[in-house]
Amino acid sequence: MAKDTLIADDVWEQNRESFVRTTEVWGQIELRYCKLDDDEGKIVLTKYSDFCPYTLDVDVYKEKRRAFTVEEWIDVVLGAVDYNPAGYKTFKARMGMCKRLLPFIEKNVNLIELAPKSTGKSYLYGQVSKNVWAVSTGTVSRAQLFYNVAKKRYGLVACHDCVILDEVNKMTFPNPSELQGALQGYLENRSVRIDAIQFTSDSGFVISGNIPCDSMDIESNMMKYLPSVFNESALIDRFHGFIEGWDLPRLLEEQKASSWNLNTEYFTSIMHLMRSDGSYRRIVDDLIEVGKDADIRHLEAVKRLTTGFLKLLFPHVQSVDDVDRDEFKKYCLDPAIHMRTIIWKQLCFMDREYRKTSMPELHVKE
């Protein structure tokens, strides 16, 4: 609002809370040019109506989930991100779409997705949420992602819930070792230091690319199709899970949402708010029984992914007593273990040292 614009008293009183928010305010306005007592003309805001048709109440959202079965709720989730649930008929396809949403709802989730063309990943990562930023093609540098020393400006990772390098195969990296070092440190401990600047962030990180159809095999080295900056086992180890994008159908007309669904902006805003809720991780810690000599990085990856699934599919749970053990295993723990197991298998192809490790034995406590 220009400094010479006034707000009518009644408009201010009715919309005070909206106007003083630190976030953007979008609405329909009416402006009038008025002569005041001092004969100076002023622009006056005389009417305002908020574009937002809803209020964000996470508790209400959680409570409403109780009215649905988990399969019905997956339909709600798919519809809320502009996809038609009827177009995703298999369990793998439906869960594949849910896997893509994990960085939207859980902090610092780092994923790799390789998929054929036209499975909808660019739209979901790039268009659905205002809190997520997708970089598609072009040149990617440390300055762009983390901090630009010359311009004294923070990069994408500092400002978003998740950053996606979409179609990473088409990108160029002017200083691979510099970017690799920054990424490796950030993905490990959520912080990065560049010159005298150090900052932490909750942003997740996703690399997404296409892969030849005859190479879509978790029992072979798929990391060779990534740019050289990612051909470092220590860096790949810091990604929590792998999404088999080939489990998702090619995007056709019937995959597009075509009926009433949960408002997309509302849903993604709810996911943004739920990222800060640590109660779900405590439930996961209480529910999972860990075997001896569990590898810490594997264990943390599985727990973080499991927590994301729990938030996404069972937002109404408040304690371990609310959790159906069989559903937790099927929809949360088992998919998380599978996603991390693929990363481990890829590491074994990249570096023989990882063959000395194994995935931890994890069970759901009765």
Shape: globular
First-to-last CA distance:
58 Å
* Computed Rg: 23 Å
Instruction: Spell out the helices and strands N to C.
Output: EHEEHHHHEHEHEEEHEEEHEHHEHHE
Total helical segments: 13
* Main β-sheet, spatial strand arrangement: 5-8-11-4-12
Strand content: 15-25%
Structural class: alpha/beta
What number is the mean pLDDT? 90
Largest sheet: 5 strands, parallel
Total beta strand runs: 14
Low-confidence stretches: none
Helix content: 25-40%
Give a quick set of tags describing it.
366 residues, alpha/beta, 5-stranded parallel β-sheet, 3-stranded mixed β-sheet, 13 helices
Task: Briefly say what this structure is.
By secondary structure, this protein is an alpha/beta fold. Helix content is 37%, strand content 21%.
Question: Could you please describe the fold and organization of this structure?
Answer:
Helices cover 37% and strands 21% of the residues. Helix 11 (279-287) crosses helix 12 and helix 12 packs across helix 13 (325-350). It has 366 residues and is α/β, with parallel strands linked by helices. It contains 13 helices and 14 strands. The model has no long low-confidence stretch (mean pLDDT 90). The chain has helices spanning 9-19, 58-65, 70-80, 91-100, 102-105, 121-127, 142-145, 176-189, 233-236, 264-274, 279-287, 296-313, 325-350, and strands at residues 5-7, 27-35, 41-50, 110-115, 132-139, 147-148, 153-154, 162-172, 191-194, 197-200, 204-210, 241-244, 288-290, 362-364. The strands form five sheets. Strands 5-8-11-4-12 form a five-stranded parallel beta sheet.
